[in-house]
UniProtKB/TrEMBL annotation:
It is a multi-pass membrane protein. One of its GO terms (cellular component) is plasma membrane. Pathway: Cell wall biogenesis; lipoteichoic acid biosynthesis. It holds the Pfam family Sulfatase. This is LTA synthase family protein. InterPro entries: Alkaline_phosphatase_core_sf (IPR017850), OpgB/LTA_synthase_biosynth (IPR050448), Sulfatase_N (IPR000917). The chain crosses the membrane at residues 12-32, 56-75, 82-103, 123-147, 159-176. It is found in: Cell membrane. The keyword Cell wall biogenesis/degradation does not apply. The keyword tRNA-binding does not apply. Residues 257-533 form the Sulfatase N-terminal domain. It comes from Vagococcus hydrophili. Keywords: Cell membrane, Membrane, Transmembrane, Transmembrane helix.
Amino acid sequence: MTKKEKIMYWLKTPWFGGFISLLVTFLSNYYLQLSQNEWSFKLATKFAFSWHTEKFLLGTLVLFALNLLLVSLSGSFKVGNIFYSVSIIFLGIANNMKMSARMEPIYPDDLKMLFEWSMLRDILGLPLFILFLVIIVVVLLWFGLTFKKSLELPLRKQKARVMTLLLSTLFLVYASNFNQPNNLLKKAYDRTALWIPYSQKMNYYNTGFMGGFLFNLNVEGMDKPANYSRQEMDKIVKEYNGKAEKTNEDKKKSKQPNIVYVMSESFSDPSRLKGIEFNADPLKKYREITSDASIHGQMLSQNYGGGTANIEFEALTGFSMALLNPQMTTPYTMMLPKEKAFPSIVSTLKEQNYQTTAIHPYNTSMYKRKDVYQTFGFDQFLDEKTMKHQEKLSKNGFISDQSAFDEILDVLADPNQPQFVHLVTMQTHMPYTNKYASSDYQVKGMENSVNIDNYAQDIAYTTEALEKFISELDKLERPTTLVFWGDHLPGIYSEETLKENTMIDTHLTEYFIYDTKENGPGVKETISPFYFPSMIGQTDGVKATGFNELLREVHEILPAFEKEMYFHENDWQKEVQLSKEEQAIFDTYQLVQYDIVSGEKYSLKLF
């Protein structure tokens, strides 16, 4: 055998194929680190070869197992590596896009969004979305044809292939239990890893993309408190249900009001940010509306640039995301679909003979809303296909807020039935670039501000529709309480603008509560969305529950809080020191939330 023949023979051996797979995996891990470090070769190189080499190699090991799984499935080193590489390239791009828009990395649960085709089309735009689909289809077809051909491989190679498939699968299954006690991979990371659960952005920076990704795999919603027991929960139920009975006795006997929740996509006041000044005020009408509200002000949002479902979870359940384990990044997709029922303002009002309706002018699969709304117990769910009103303000936009408000008015038309309607709007959702031909609002002294200009036009249109909507609510025979809030700021601001503002500034949106029976001027207050159910429980005509009373007490102590953002005694603090009595109330709230989220649900009678 000549030297050339020996080289060619060696190039066809599994050893060479395995070496190429290892090299591809190593480079892919470096690429993912690049996407995490804003494409900085300097930072990624220091992470991999200086600062965190051990963690980088551990991440490479996990990716190598994934690579070998795909190679053994396809029966070809070449096709397996191409499929693997294309997947990693898309993952890195998606991670960088999410970091830019929301200052958050990709979580394992985000991968479920791959099947949200309409959302991907809206984010990428039609040309890029078609290119994405073509690449996926071509690679999948090639992978399938290669798999079919691989069934003809000799028995010796089939045995090696099955063994590789089995070992790589077992390793990946073990790695998927990263957060389980005594997991050896987690212990290997723990030797040098400094986990920062309260900031997933820093967590990924400190432990690498793969370390952060593994850290966010399956985990319990909350850790068990030391004093959790049936006896303790029974004691809490008795105490707070007693307080609710007294509250209900002291209330005026009134007609049950309609309750309307409107969670307005990305609705906020951009002029509150330093460096943003418009030629005209897009929220002029909004400020007139809130002057008649019973309460209004700023709402503390858990997220910047996204995370709508988490804010919705808080507003419907009365539970704080800040108290969940940090890996429980999206309860709507990670926790609620596993539940047959879950207590919320929906179930509470249904107990009081309310008809309950959810409206979302988009597809039903986004954040698994169809399944989640069934878990909450909504009587009906109206979406973009089942809504009667579907007008849009622009060709590239979503169903307008005016249409969504008209849909609510149709539901409220029957004066004999109290209604709870929960609307999650879409008109003001990104992208903003090509949404309107022109905007009446321009940022002063800023070039390339088309996204902000069009966003300002969007929220101005929302306030116009809101003004008309409230005037129609005032005409209804049955009194109505409207809770309106923005879920988060849009992820459209430059790094310079974000640096000029504090973390608090970028997490405050607008909200108000309007009662058609009692107009303002009302109280201005900063609040967290998980207190909305408690505030509804204080409304005349609605029976308060024990949980409402507990929420009310926590609200008096901490009007707003998220991780590292505590509004206590009219001041923002990174950490908060509570008195003994205040801490006891807060601990009780945590016990109840644990009991419902991860415990035995002893406290269901509170709801």
